[in-house]
Amino acid sequence: MIKVGIVGYGNLGKGVTLAVSKASDMECVGIFTRRDPSALNPIVNYPVYSMEKLGAFKGEIDVLLLCGGSATDLPNNTANLLKDFNTVDSFDTHAKIPEYYDKLEKVAKENGTLSAISIGWDPGVFSIARMLFGAVLPDGNDYTFWGKGVSQGHSDAIRRIEGVKNAIQYTIPKEEALSAVRSGQNPKLSTRDKHLRECFVAVDDGVDKSAIEKAIKEMPNYFADYDTIVNFVSEEEVRSMQQKLSHGGFVFRSGNTTKENAHLLELSLKLDSNPELTGSVLVAYGRAVAKMAKEGKTGVVTVFDVPIKYLSPLTNEDLRKTLL
Amino acid sequence: MIKVGIVGYGNLGKGVTLAVSKASDMECVGIFTRRDPSALNPIVNYPVYSMEKLGAFKGEIDVLLLCGGSATDLPNNTANLLKDFNTVDSFDTHAKIPEYYDKLEKVAKENGTLSAISIGWDPGVFSIARMLFGAVLPDGNDYTFWGKGVSQGHSDAIRRIEGVKNAIQYTIPKEEALSAVRSGQNPKLSTRDKHLRECFVAVDDGVDKSAIEKAIKEMPNYFADYDTIVNFVSEEEVRSMQQKLSHGGFVFRSGNTTKENAHLLELSLKLDSNPELTGSVLVAYGRAVAKMAKEGKTGVVTVFDVPIKYLSPLTNEDLRKTLL
Description:
The structure is a homodimer of 324-residue chains.
Chain A: E1 2-7, H1 11-21, E2 26-33, E3 48-50, E4 63-66, H2 73-82, E5 87-88, H3 97-111, E6 114-116, H4 125-136, E7 140-146, E8 149-150, H5 152-159, E9 164-173, H6 175-182, H7 191-194, E10 195-203, H8 209-217, E11 227-232, H9 235-241, E12 247-256, E13 262-271, H10 274-294, E14 299-301, H11 316-322
Parallel strand pairs in A: 1-2, 1-4, 2-3, 4-5, 5-6, 6-14, 10-11
Antiparallel strand pairs in A: 7-12, 8-9, 9-10, 12-13
Helix pairs in contact in A: 1-10, 2-3
């Protein structure tokens, strides 16, 4: 049995907990939290400990599944945890991945540990598709679409506007763009062509709604380059939408092997729960980290480095027999 | 530069030749054929040699791209070639993969060579999807559909019927089945539910067409378990259809992380030329074999064993920066 520890119990931690409970080859040593452990009521009945207790489990956990956020949790904590434990995380601040990688690689090599970073569906499963498709079809174009799903960053940006009580923003791929890609036209698509942004906003009584709508639609970086729809709704409606964590997306590679012969490779995901699917990917790579660490591998790996056989509880013989 | 040799110049050999010509990090030492080399007019102007000359290139070729068939070429020849060269092949006789693997593993280990077997889109890219999806979503169902595309085995089976001059058979996924899977219903699908078989048959003058149609539709293993459409056409029409080598297919994983939350993962390919896309996959794995062999790896590998970073001509740093 692979012994795992779960660090953090937000939406992702809950998704990871569910995924661990479905893994026949894993046992959960504990969920570690910065909150009061007795206040946590995890969805599966695993022991809950305060983060301060984690050090006592050194040598008794094969891999820590890190469920913190990319803004502060992971950049601040992973390097420290990696001194004593193998880790998996979902670090997704794209521009900072090289820096994050270098920092952790040093710690892992010094301490003989192994860390899988940027694991999830994007970065993660989508990265595999982009890389594999591009290697197979070098003469072609990549297209990645996200949604329909909530963008936390864009929702936050709206909430920072004065007079806004609460807000949620959906990123929606445009059907015309998807169709153009699927038809093999290899279209040139601007930011505006690919995605639509739809916002549901609850505001204070008596505010100027048209001013808020203008502030959203003209917000640089977040909305100015997009077609944006703003709907004003009640706080209750926003809160109800915030319960649904569905998401999805598409990776396409469209290209040619000769002038006459075109090919279209497509990966698509439709997810009822973004954190539960992300958690499931994290757990599969947790299995891989535990196995590779046992074989003596140290350092930092991404989805590009891990042979996928390590993700499965099946033996290599069974994989070849049943899935090849 | 990675030095490759191409063994065999049928449809797949031609596809591999095109793919090598698009690989900026490869040079082709030669195409090796059992036919008269002077009679070959390859699509890219690479040197052509008789197979007997191949031995003289030992030490000068990083990887041989084997373009023979799975029925006799590969089972008879790969082990012998593997004594002196690293190889990649598209062996796809599913039931015999374990036996083929064991035989080659012994030769490769004895001779310090490396062989990637069963490379292409299925087995190959589809196998990656089945394995990755299943590891991520253990509580779910797999569905693989093939087509629309030609099945060589079924076309051959029709041609063996007395009175048939020529024939071509298309495997077609049924739209209702695809829709049921896409809607997340997790349907139980019989063989008949998933695929339709459409045949275009040219027959001798004066034969009993209804008898031939019956012989096709009732043929055990090949057609009896399917809905089959038989069209009688001219020899010219069959020949013209045989020029088009388009194919495609779908891999789905449909499953749940909780009772409420379902997910659908889908990979689909639409190919204008089956051998050109298969050849492109073979060349990407040829790159991987050359790199892994240089690092000292020996034995037999499948798509489950090869970290996908090896498929790309990009550096690991660039992959993380641009594709993660």
